[in-house]
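Notebook entry, structure prediction.
Reason for the run: the old model in the group folder had no record of what sequence produced it. Starting over properly, with the input documented here first.
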Amino acid sequence: MEKGRVRVAGAMAKWCWIPLLALAGCGGGGGGTGSGSGSLASYDPTAYGNAPVDETQVDGRDRTTTPGASDVSDKSAGESAPLPGAQTSGSEGGGAPSTGGTENTASTGMGSTGTESTGTGSSGGSAGGPAPTGGAGDAGTDSGNSAATPKSDGDGGAPVVPPGALLALVQGGWKTTSAEASRLYGPGAYLMDGLWNINAERINGRDTIAGIRFRAAYSGSVASIRLYWSDGSGYVGGDGGDIRILLLPDDGSARHLPKWSAAPLATGRRKPGEMSMHNSTYTTPSHRFSPDMMTGGGQVEAGKLYHLVAINDAPDPSQNWSSWDMAFTVRTNGQAARWFDPYDFAVLYGWRAADSLTEPSWQDWTVDGYSAAYMVPIIQINMADGRVFGNSNMETGNIDLASRIWKNGSANPVRERFQPIKTRTISGLSVNTAKAGGSGGLAWQILDGSTVLASGLIDQAAANYQVDTGIIRSGTGVMAWYDIALPSSVRLDANKYYDVQFTPQGSSVWVFADQRNGSAYGFSSPAAFTESQAQHYLNGQWINANHWDKSSGGGGSNWRMVLHQTP
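New structure, fully documented this time:
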């Protein structure tokens, strides 16, 4: 297992070795920029027009009689191409987004709800806060030790990493409702490398069924769900069909499938043709994210597994059909939810003979993956008492194009600006990044204004950034997780601003990818992580990250990182 050396600064600073856990098989998956106050401005969707159908959107339709197979063409390149199990759409060129639809991204764990504290932002203005400060110097190179456990400090004693400082990676992953999982605070609990749609339609003599499995975060009644309904050619047919949504219990089997024989706990229905959302371009973009009301009680119990399934009841589902968008990570980046049990939050694909009422056959596109990817749902589950949970990663900058991914040197550090809604105590941090070349490490700091609360260095000797072209022709970034235990805990007070800053050292170039959350389209905390904002330093000022236009800023975006709260 590859490692990177991490140095932390503090009263008892020592060298420690932290496993790099993001390569294959290791897991791992606003408004304009703020004014001078540095506030987390609410996002104004008009700043992007009606945003793009991203070139990372992949058509998951099964076009053959063999489940799981599909023919593919890269429409972005305008030619046939053997991209495994997928069909991409849109332009792979960079630049500003075209009109017609919006894909946002965000990541968050399933935790308690909260209200974003926002300020007034002005597009293109300074994000406020201090200029980048110098990080720790490059302290040398990785000695090549490949042991899986942290290295001792050289005196024969115990590993340097404080016990409990970081949420451990455990076999099978933590339950999303566990006390351990609640220690993760930040936008990187779920990652995203692209969008993949799954359809409720009839094709090749089979009726296909879309499904989502989730572990209930709360007990109570499910009032509605908010999904990402796809639009445009290839993602919806005719009038969109007549989609019946069922909330079902889990069957209790080892595969954790919907209990098809059970009476639905709640039902919902969506007829896209009645919402003017089956056009090639949305006339009312909010329909894509408008909630689907659930009736029938929908009582769920915290900690138990449940399923949502979408069945197309249209008389001609081969012509009139709809699809949900899901997020995916390429297999080389591992599961989207690095720390969590993949059974807890998953995408299921079902099929049965046309007009059949039998239980479908199912594939689990999260636990087992599909093609070259692992899926994760995009959904917010709204409880009758107002609490919500889910994940609303909707758009990614992790495409290996200069116009999308971020490859920064020492003059262009990045930071995640936090404004916690309640006081938190932090004992570690994890960041998903990689070194693209040059000499030097990546300095990190936790800042309260200009006061350094903690600092250190990620000392990655050799470049470790890779590009996966298995799904997206222009390539998906393959990065690594760096886990950093703080020498002592750091307190983040409620409603104050704190920055977690990353500054490349020497001639090194480090790669980052932003993710946009769905807060502009009705998704709320904690499904959308709204207590922080990704920013980068450009032309002498900090501006909010916007991978569509890196010079003008944006909002509702986050870097792929989390903070570990003290156990």
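Summary: The CA atoms of residues 50 and 99 lie 5 Å apart.
The old model has been moved to the deprecated folder.
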